[in-house]
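INFO  loader      accepted 1 record
INFO  loader      residues=334
INFO  predictor   begin
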Amino acid sequence: MSNKVRWGILSTAAIGVKKVIPAMQKGEWSEVTAIASRDQRRAQKTAGALGIANAYGSYEELLGDSQVEAIYNPLPNHLHVPWTIKAAEAGKHVLCEKPLSMTVGEAKKLLAVQERTRVKIGEAFMVRTHPQWLRTRQVIASGRIGPLRSVLGFFSYFNSDPKNIRNIPECGGGALMDIGCYPVTASRFMFGEEPSRVLGLMDRDPQMKVDRLTSAILDFPSGQSTFTCSTQLVPYQRMHFLGPRGRIEIEIPFNAPNDRPTRILIDDGQDIFGGGITTETFPTCDQYTIQGDLFSRALREGSEIPVSLGDAAKNMAVIEAIFRSAASGQWEMP
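INFO  predictor   done
INFO  writer      dumping tokens
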């Protein structure tokens, strides 16, 4: 397709270089034409390695490239909003890494900018468009497990490096911001509603001050979601969705591999040993290719992008309430 959307990448961040850019380059609707770093040599080296035509030694230069239509912003969390605003004001559409903002106030500022500049701004929650998630939502909607009543989630990895950006509080580090945002968006996505109140519990690293172990209960009109996330535990991830007549388990919910199929397990609960489990397997795909193409296609067709700025603000409201609850020891309302 010659009508591909021309993308510019803001920074040589690892998630972009290792996962997102190679995936977008395989897309039918996306073409990566430029990359920027604050170091010209690094930009050129990365562009050379990935076969990207243009390399810029500053983010401003990239935003000044009239050929670039859309920006992917994988900068550290605290730089998401400032550079998304600059990109929007330069007339570029923006796909920004999650969490899109540090606060609800910041997200609202972005909504005003979007209104003024008329560009599309979206949050890069690639799980929301992966076939295994769309199928899980479809099975729940079909009534096969009965009404969704309970969501259980777990997401952890181990990283105790104080120099790592994910362990610096001022940069939006910590477990809830980095990975807890996934069970939050997944719960909202599956219930199709917002929680009325939340409860949060946090254990902070004594040296680094970021939350390293966070658990939360989200109280939805239709049921409850509970999850734990940690940056200092054995790597593990799982999501369960339960109703009166069955449950669905997503085996690798968040870091879905791009080199092998994924699976969900649908259990009718007839047999505690798993005799009632049906396994559904999804062909190998790359969730970052899908994410980029759906965003690009929305630009070309003038349709809705997968995860809107409004949705991102609602997700942030829940995250902010969990932080408040952990501090107050009380239920808090998003």
